[in-house]
Fold this protein.
Amino acid sequence: MKNRNTLRRERRYVRWMWLLTLVYTLVTFLNLGTLRFPQTVWSSRQGGELVIDLGESVYVQSAWFNGNIGTGTLRLTGDDGTLYEYNQVYSEMFSWESKPLGFTTRYITLTPVEGDVRLNEVAFFDEQGVLLAASVAGWAECPLLDEQDTVPEASSYLNGMYFDEIYHARTAYEFLHGMPVYEWTHPPLGKLLIALGVTVFGMTPFGWRAMPALFGAAMLPVLFFLARRLFRREDYAFLAAALFAVDTMHFTQTRIATVDVFVVFFILLMYLFMLGWLRTDFLRAPLKKALVPLGACGVSFGLGVAAKWTGLYAGAGLAVLFFTALIRQGLRAGRDPALRSLFWKRAGVTVLFCCGFFLLIPALIYFLSYIPFYRVAAAEVGGNYGLGDALQTLLQQQESMYYYHSTLTATHLCQSAWYQWPFTAKAVWFYSSSSPETGMVSLISSFGSPAVWWLATVGTLCLAVECAFGRMRGSVTWKDGSVFLVLVGVLANFLPWTLVTRCTFQYHFFPTVPFLLLAALMLLQHLEERGEVPAWSKWAWLGIAAVFFLLLYPAASGLPMARTYAEFLEYVLPGGVLFYGAV
């Protein structure tokens, strides 16, 4: 029985964890993106020429176009016959793109030239940068000019898409509108979750980033409860969650509308539930009690794979943990004929149960995640579309996805190899802007915090060495299999990348980071309990990591900073390449 002081201390750390989650949620939603964003759409196929009236003859310096999903060319003609052609490309969507005009006119005639230009809004500015009043005669609320209050003072990540949002957030919009899908290189579940945020908050930067940010915050309590079961100590569980909270990649990857955040969340759930099964007494606990966490683990596995194929890597680790535990239980039961008979009965039921929850249910989840694709395919064939056709569509998508990833030969400025990731050699440049007038720069780069990754990597290597020399065998975490689970988690999520020959990026290391943290903390706990390091050392690590997070926050969040500070981050503070020579 735990004494009152122990229970009070445990509850205190749980409260701190929820407070940490609340603070992190507030910070991550701060400046996540605007809710003021044009929602109506004008198409160049809606009736030919359109004449915009500026009220009087004025000098038009520039036009800002907020594009929707479309490609084509639109001609803008002034009163004196001056022409400007706006070419809409797929990457210029759901953001404000400034185009120079430079003519004096009262009327601007928009003439479709080719394709289907689709715009959410257009805005015109004079040479002082003042927004010009504009209207269309006979059209009280032209969808091209009806949301002028959404025009921002400046174009930035706050009011537009950046990096791979042009694929994943776009796909969420296409799902919601029953449109053919442009991006199919990852399974649909992550983009369906992004679409849920869009449904609630509209097709706005805040809307398409809301669900990734929410899942990023939810990772913290999941990691806390996983760590608490592993370490059997609330202080180390809180430390794991806190270190993950101040890791810059965790912060950056969960504030952008891409699918990586979802697969990492479900991977953590997989291992939390698998640990729940490993901690049940297979031979003595009620069988139903043992199967509940195993079933939850299988569902989490299915959700992870339906978000991104890298969930399969984590699933391979689950298989290693499951069969290793089953073999150990079999060896344990082998000494007793009664237990041996019970083991084979329970093992048979458990394996059959796993066939359902790790094969059939994940397959069903995966199949259902493609419903938006089936809807589009059914609309194309006109009603004669059944289960066989859906399976054919699913198969075609998998073949296309595999072919894309296996034959990709493209290179990228920010690409890096697997052996560079643990020491944060090259960030992935998401967004950058600068203001010559103020000397301020804005940057969003996806990179790991050196104070978290470097120490966690060294700690994990030292843990492996300690295990190799048998120095962990006397610890509780060795005896209960916690060390094995954590190292399997590291290897399952990391080793497959050593075989990948295509272009890879530092954020591919993201699923490995929580397990790297757990491994390093497991070593630290062991050293502390042996009296080889002081208890305060773990809090010193958190303090250093928190300072690094504050220092690196502008480079991870897009917060404008002085150029001299950007130079400090790039050339003085350790952490690898962030700006790629932009400062």
Summary: Strands lie at 42-43, 50-67, 71-77, 83-88, 96-116, 118-125, 135-136, 428-435, 440-446, 561-562.
